[in-house]
Structure formats: structure tokens, C-alpha cells
Amino acid sequence: MNLSWLPRGVHLIALDVAAAIVWFLVYLAFTVSATGDGQPAYDGPVWLGWLVAAAVAVPIGVRRIWPLAAIGVVVAGSAAAVYLQMIREPFLGIGFVLYLVALREPPRRSGLALGFAAAGSAAALFTGHYLAPGPLWADMSDIVGYMAAAWLVSFVGWGSGFAVRLRRQEQARIAERDAERALADERLRLARELHDVVAHSMSLIAVKAAVANHVAAQNPAEAVDALRVIEATSRDGLADLRRMLGVLRTGDTAELAPAPGPSSLAALAKRAEVGGVRVDLEMRDVTDLPEAIGLSVYRIVQESLTNVVKHAAPARCSVLVDGGGDTVRIEVTDNGTGARTPVEGAGHGLIGMRERALLYGGDLIAGPLPGGGFRVSATLSTTNGEPG
């Protein structure tokens, strides 16, 4: 049976109502049954017994709706039961209601409710010793013992509710912290993707624009070729950027091109050659890499070649991607001047590459070579499966 149309929590209220009906019947039994334990029996009017039974039971049924009002009514009803010699239990109704008070109300307010319940039950028991004398109230030690039992019930009810409240608050804090961490990770991932998508195209455009500006007067044909490269590269970059922004706005990935991987490195090398970098590409055992790891491999090589185009062109560069074993090894080495953003500096490209490697249990080392040039060396573990 589908009960999704019911309001949230209505089944709990229904259980409380059922418990209240049972408790009402129990107190009615106290008014009509003869006692066999030596305690005085109720001898008042029937309507009053029903009223007291309702005062003790009804708060249990509405404790989730009006917890503070419920505790006031149940304490008053329990006190009336003491005075009318109807009491046969240690104020269990008060404990049930205090559980919800501690669970729903702020600690200060629920603490005051606990103090009110404890004081009210004690006052009822001690004054009942004089107002309703009989076997139950003959000995003050019996009063103290009964009060201790009533207080135990109250504190257990309140303490249980307060413990559940604290646990839920901690769970909420953990959930909020996890959500904030997930949001930060998503922002970082998007920043990396935007940087990697845009930086490569913009770097090639900047290099070709400098070439066109330098040779425009002496060699117009070469300047025209550079402008053609700028036009084509800018269109490709804008198309990639629009696709990514479209996904961010709509969340629809149906029209998003497949994520690039090792199979796209050859085309990437050709684009780098347009920027004046001749690339020698070697790949081993990369056909079965998981898609996410393949994307990270592509982005690390892309950023490395972008840096070569930006800082070392014209140059020659070797790219090795080795997927044998449990790790993927990436090495990008060039013979350029080696002038780069410092490894420990603020370059977003190197930071992004290192973050991609760390996501898959690897590391990244980047720095100038002793004889000139620059090398980027990265490893990614294929045993992690997903970023950890």
C-alpha cells in the first residue's frame, strides 16, 4: 500500500494516539478495579475518574504536536491521580512526554520542563500524604521511594530525548560539513576543467598573435596563416566553453562531447605543433584505462604542452604515457629554455596537475632540467578506481 500521500511523521502521531488510548483504558481500570495490594481504591464519581484518566493519557497522544502544553497537563493529571488514590505506576506518562520535550525543545526550555515535572511529582506525593491518607501514604519512606521511582522515570525519559537530540544535531553537522566539502570539491573540479579547457586554446592564440604581430610587415603570408590558426583555435575554445557552461546551467549532459582521453593525445600533439612545439608521442598500455583516469592523463599532458607552448616554443617535446601495471606514468620533457612558473608558486596549471595526480593516489614532480629544458613527471594509481 502506497502511503506517500500522508503527511510526514503522521505514523508516529498515530502510534502516540494508540498509546494514549491504552493508557486511558489503564487508568479507567484503576478507577473500577478493587485493589489487592493493600492500597486505597478510588471511590469518587465516575466522571471525575474519566477526566483524570484523560488528563494523564491525552498528553501522550499530542506530545509531538504540543510538547510543552502536554507536559503541563500530564503533570497536573498525575497529581490529581495521586490525590484521588488512582495512582498505580511511577508517572510513566510524564516520562513519555518528557522524551519529546527534550527532543524538540531547546535545552534550556526542556530543562525547565524537567524541573517542573520533578517538582510537580514530588509536591503531589508529599501533599498527597496529608490529603489522601491511607496505606500508600502511611510511611514517609514509602513516599520517598515512590518519588525516587518517579524521578528516575522522568530523568530517563528526558535524558533519552536529549541524547537523541544531540545525536541528530551531530548528524546534521556532519551532513552540513560533507555538503560544504562536496561543494568545495565541485568548485575545484569545475575550476580545473575550465582552466584546462580554456588555457590551452588561449595560450596557442597568444603565441600565434605574437607571431602575427612580429611578422605582419615583413611576411604578411605568415601573419595570415597565424590569424587563421587564431580563428580556428578561438572557435574551438569557445565551443568547448559553451558546452561546459551549458552543462553548468542546465545539468543536461546529453549533448556534451565524450570526455577526452589517451586516444585524443595525438590530436593534442598536432595542435601543439601549430604553436611551434614538435611533439614525439609514445603511449603504452593505455587502451583499457578507466574513463576518469584517462581524462586526468589527457589534462596533465594538455597542461604540460600548454606550458611548453607558452614558455619554450619553438621547442621539441617528448611525451610518454605508460599504463602498464597498477600505475599510469606520464613524462613530458622539452628542450626549451626551462623558464616556467616556479613549482611552489601560484601557477594554477601546476597546482591543477598536482591535484589531479593526488586524486588518484599519485604524485607529480615538475622542474627545470640541469642541461636546460623542463620535465613534468606524474604517476596515477589505477587501483583506486574513483577519486578518494
Taking the alpha carbons of the first and last residues, their distance comes to 41 Å
- Characterize the quaternary organization of these chains: single chain
Q: DSSP helix count?
A: 10
Major beta sheet, strand line-up: 1-2-3-5-4
The helix/strand order is: HHHHHHHHEHEEHEE
Count of distinct strands: 5
Strand residue content: 5-15%
What is shown here, in short?
The protein is α+β, with helices and mostly antiparallel strands. The chain contains ten helices and five strands. It folds into two domains: 10-177, no CATH class; 276-388, 2-Layer Sandwich (Heat Shock Protein 90).
Features of the shown structure:
388 residues, alpha+beta, Heat Shock Protein 90, 2 domains, 5-stranded mixed sheet, 5 strands, 63% helix, rod-shaped, HATPase_C_sf, two-component regulatory system, histidine kinase, membrane
Would you write up a description of this structure?
This is histidine kinase. The chain crosses the membrane at residues 12-32, 44-60, 90-105, 112-131, 143-164. Keywords: ATP-binding, Kinase, Membrane, Nucleotide-binding, Phosphoprotein, Transferase, Transmembrane, Transmembrane helix, Two-component regulatory system. InterPro entries: HATPase_C_sf (IPR036890), HATPase_dom (IPR003594), Sensor_HK_TwoCompSys (IPR050482), Sig_transdc_His_kin_sub3_dim/P (IPR011712). Its EC number is 2.7.13.3. The chain has two domains: 10-177, no CATH class; 276-388, 2-Layer Sandwich (Heat Shock Protein 90), CATH 3.30.565. Helix 5 (107-131) packs antiparallel against helix 6. Residues 338-346 have low confidence and may be disordered. It has helices spanning 10-32, 46-61, 67-83, 92-104, 107-131, 140-215, 220-250, 265-274, 291-311, 348-359; strands spanning 277-284, 315-322, 327-334, 363-368, 374-381. Strand 1 (277-284), helix 9 (291-311) and strand 2 form a beta-alpha-beta unit. 63% of the residues lie in helices and 10% in strands. It is built from ten helices and five strands. With 388 residues, it is of the alpha+beta class. A five-stranded mixed beta sheet has the order 1-2-3-5-4, with helices on one face. The radius of gyration is 39 Å and the shape is rod-shaped.
